[in-house]
Amino acid sequence: MLFYISLICFIMLTMTKYYYIYNYIQIFGAFTCFICSGISYILLLITNSYEKRKENTFDIESMKGLDYGTSMAYSYYYGYLRIILPSTGSINKGLIEKIENIEDNHGIYISVHKLFILIPSSSYIPPNLKEASYHWMESAMNLEKEVLNRAGVKGRTYHNSVYKIYPNGLRLETPFYIVVEGATPLLTFHEVQKHAHNETNVYKKYCKCIIQKFYKKLKQLIDADPECADLCELIYYNDYDNNGTKVNVAKVILDRIFKIQNITGENAYNIFT
């Protein structure tokens, strides 16, 4: 649009009856046209770039909670985390009591008494986290089941998995025990993108924005809930590096453990070497 405006202005100038302007254009007309066209093209690129960035964020932000990411966060929080994390004061145990029981029953020490939830930027979470850790991790056991009657389903069960992490993948070293899992709504979101639904292309286009909205809203919900705030650790991360190589999720988890436990960089380095 700016290019055409500049072109029209140039034509009008060349047709003017004023002698000096006419002579100026005769001498410098081609050069002036070239400069105007170049400036117009640059401004057009800048405008398109701005509009594209605005489109990528505005459509989701303007939905005021009606977007896919926010909806997933609410569903996951009320339909799962609020059920398995806090102690209800009834026969159902909270996460801390389940962790303490499994430590006593199996003679192990779980590094951090929280549920670690993985939120990869690609939305893909393998069935076994061993696959995403270059075999640094392996499933150890499950926490006690939570059994509830919910939405007409009698005896619906919920449980969490305990994993062992071997630094550097060496089985000779003492492993870290951790309660960890992927955010299951993201796997569903990933599977939706694999099929040719009407919304598939839109979800693919805004995939990272949707996942970020999911993470931000979920963190907001957990942080605002005193019964859950200290029981859950969200880990949002890029599961592929700049070279397209799969990131070792075990290292990502260990980095977070070290941060929580205030392990110094030197001590952390010793664990990896």
UniProtKB/TrEMBL annotation:
GO molecular function, one term: 2',3'-cyclic GMP-AMP binding
Domain STING ligand-binding residue range list: 67-259
Keyword Thylakoid appears in the UniProt entry: no
InterPro entries registered for this protein in UniProt: STING, STING_C, STING_C_sf, STING_LBD
Keywords: Membrane, Transmembrane, Transmembrane helix
Cellular component GO terms, alphabetical: autophagosome; endoplasmic reticulum membrane
Any one Gene Ontology BP term: innate immune response
Membrane-spanning ranges: 20-46
Pfam families: STING_LBD (PF15009)
Record's keyword annotation contains Disulfide bond: no
Protein's name according to its UniProt entry: Stimulator of interferon genes protein
Organism: Bombus vosnesenskii
Gene designation: LOC117236525
